[in-house]
Amino acid sequence: MKLQFKLALYNTLTKIAIITILGILILVSINHISINHIQRRLLQKKVRLISNLSNIEINDLLSQKTFTDYNLLREEYIILKEIKKEDHPIKQKFIQEIRSIEGTQEDFQILITDFSYEGKSYRLELGETMSTLAQLERTISMFTFGILIAAVILTLIIDLGFMQFLLAPFYQIIDQKLNKVNDPINFNYQPVKTSTDDFKILDRSISVLMNKIATLFLTEKEFIANVSHELLTPISILNTRLENLLNDEQLSPEGENKLFACLKTLNRLKAIINSLLLISKVENQQYGKTDIISVKHTVEEVHEELEHRLLMMKLKMHIDLRDDYSFTGNRSLFHTLLMNLINNAIKYNKPSGSVNIYSEPSAEGYTLVIADTGLGMDPEVVQNAFIRFEKLQSEKEDSHGLGLAIVRSIAAFHDIKVDISSEKGQGTQVRIIFPN
Hints:
By secondary structure, the protein is α+β, with helices and mostly antiparallel strands. It is 54% helix and 19% strand. The longest helix is centred in the middle third of the chain and has 50 residues, at 197-246.
C-alpha cells in the first residue's frame, strides 16, 4: 500500500474514532440534559399549581379517576390525593416509571411531592412522558450517524488529495532521480522544487550518492581502459614471440609441443580478458542502443557463422520464425548474445542431435526459444548458470564459464528476460522474452 493511502487511512480511522466518541458523549449528555430539563419543568409546574390552588380545583383534581382526565394526548398528567395518617410523608422525589393509560404503556418522568393546604395534607403527582425525549434521541442519533458517514467520505477524499499534493515531490524524486537514471554520469543534479525539508534532504542525499557513484564509474572505466592496454598488449607481444620461436628449424618436437601449449594458454587468457572487458563495458552502459534489430535476421546470421560447427558434430538446425520481431538496441551485442546461446546448444549437444529455434506465444511478450537435444543440466547447475566462471559441463576444456554471464549482462542492457529450463539427459530450452 502506498504511503499516501496509509496516511489517509490513518487520518480517516482516527477521525472516525473521535467522531464516534463525541457522538456517544452527545447522546449521553442529551439524555441527561433532557431529563434535568423535564424535572425543572415539573418543579415549575408544581410551584405554579400550588400557588394557584383553590378548593374548587382541589375537588376537581381529587375527583379524577384516570390519567387521561387531565390530558387527552397522554403527554402529561396530574394526580392529587389526600394523605392518610398511615401514609409515609414524601418531601419531594423524582422517579421514572411505566404507566398504563387506557391499555397503552408510556414511560413517564414523575415528580411526587407532599404539601398542605388549609390544614389538610395532599400528595401531588406530576408526570411527563419520555416518548418525546426518545424521539429526539433517535433523531440526533440518525443525524450523528449521517454526519459520521459524510465526514468519513469527505475526510478520505480531502486526505487523499492533500497527501497526493504533499507527496508529489517525493514521487518526482523517485521517478526522475532513481527510476529514470540509467547512467549516473549524466545524472540531473537540479533540485526538485518542494517546500518540505525532508524531501529536500532526500534529494540532496541522492545527489551526493549519485556523485560518488559517477566518480566510481569513471574510475572503473579508466581502469578498464588501462587493463585493456596493459594486459592485452603484453599478451599480444608474447603471442608473437612464441609464434616466431615456432619457426625455428632447430626446435625439437618436445619444444614445439610446449610452445603450442603456451600459445593455447595465452589465447585462453586473452579470451577471458576480452569477455570480462565486454561484461564490464556493457554493465557500465558504454554501448549505445541506436540500431533497429531484426531477431529473425540475426538468427540467420548466427546460423551461417556456425554452420561449419553443425557439420562437424553432424547436427541439424531447424529454424521456424514465421513472425519476426524488431526492437531498438545494439546489433553487435545482441549478435553476441545469440552467438553464445546457440554456440552452447551446439557445444553441449549429442552427436547427430538437433537444435530447434522457434518463436512461441507468450503473455509477457515475443518469445524466442533455443532448444537442443543435448546433455541437459541438473537443477542446481541451472540455478547457477549465469554466475561468472560457473561452467555448465566441467569436461569441456574450452569453456571459460563466462558465456552466460555475458548473455545476462547484454539481456539486462536491452531489458530482455532470459529463462533456462533443462533436464538431465533430455536437453535444454532457453527462452528469450522480449518486452511488449
